[in-house]
Amino acid sequence: MPPSLIVKLKSEHFQHPFRQTSIPGKGQGLVASRDIARGSRVLSEAPLLSVPSGAVKSCDIVDAYMKLDQFGRAAFLALCRAPNADLGEISPKFSPEMKHVLFVYATNERGRRIFSQGSRINHSCVPNLEHAWNANIGQGTFQAIKDIRKEDELTISYIQGANWTKEKRQRTLKLWGFTCSCSLCQDSIDARISERILVERQTKLQYLLIGHRKSSADWKQCVEICTTTASSQTVQGTPTRERSLSFLNAAKYSWRLGRWDHAEYYIKSALQHEKICIGTDHPDYIYGQRILILLKTAIAEQDAYKSAKELRNSDDLRELAERWDQYAKWQLNPQTKQKMREPEHDWRLHNPRKAMWWALVDLNREKREHEDPQHVAI
């Protein structure tokens, strides 16, 4: 193969599959320069600017900007700014230049971070990319959650609004200074009916989970709501990580019902979807794999536990408890292990079901902690 052809192939391989261009009614944006397969990582990028976690203050943003070198500042100021972005009250001590910095940040932040390329991706309530912060590699990733054709605009969702009403989505998006006009926000009768059904399901789920002691029928309804919600999210074109959360909740409630095989199926479904949305190197995916191993172990050990309990064989029970203790030390994070050590949750005196329950609760918490925070008005 000629050397010139090798160089050309290498450059095409490492070149990003998108280009920046002007989008009618949106300003600048990114469009696909070639077909992109579902599950592909379109972009992985270190942040140009990041603000410490916690309440975001104007002074924190200005301080982060001042720490950039001249090239970083130039790249930051080259980003678009929405003149209608909601900044809240701005201190009069800020100069016009610093106010411009705040406008640029409010327009382009992705989970308290600014990316030189990722921040140029526009919003859609039916996105074709999923954005996540990957702590393992210290970069923000943007992965295709749908097959994308050449010249299609690349979009992400700035909000977690798959189960929200149109009014709530539009009210939240005003923080960025624009009104969404995607297919989900069109004033069609079918869209509003589907939206209302989703909201009613979530309201019913919250009612079932709060307060009273749960019966088997209640848990079955919870599982049904979660699985139906996951299907609806796919149909309406929002197969984001919220769909993974629906599967994880279905696994958690199936576990409470004693449907161990169903719980395993839903966790596998969640991990398959997470693989598409965030990739196999993301902390949440890795932790989910560990939980799946723990679940399979629990299923394998359950028969042995039942036999030992029926025979009241204390030696076998003690051996199982020690074995589970080793599994927990390897699989679970400190928060879950501490929870298990509390007297009311002493799973070693009962059975592996409690260990698995707290593992699933923990996985949901891990997912929420690793997700990028929502937009916060300055």
Automatic annotation (TrEMBL):
Residues 16-159 form the SET domain. Pfam families: SET (PF00856). SMART domains: SET. InterPro entries: SET_dom (IPR001214), SET_dom_sf (IPR046341), SET_domain_protein (IPR053185), TPR-like_helical_dom_sf (IPR011990). Signal peptide: none annotated. This is SET domain-containing protein.
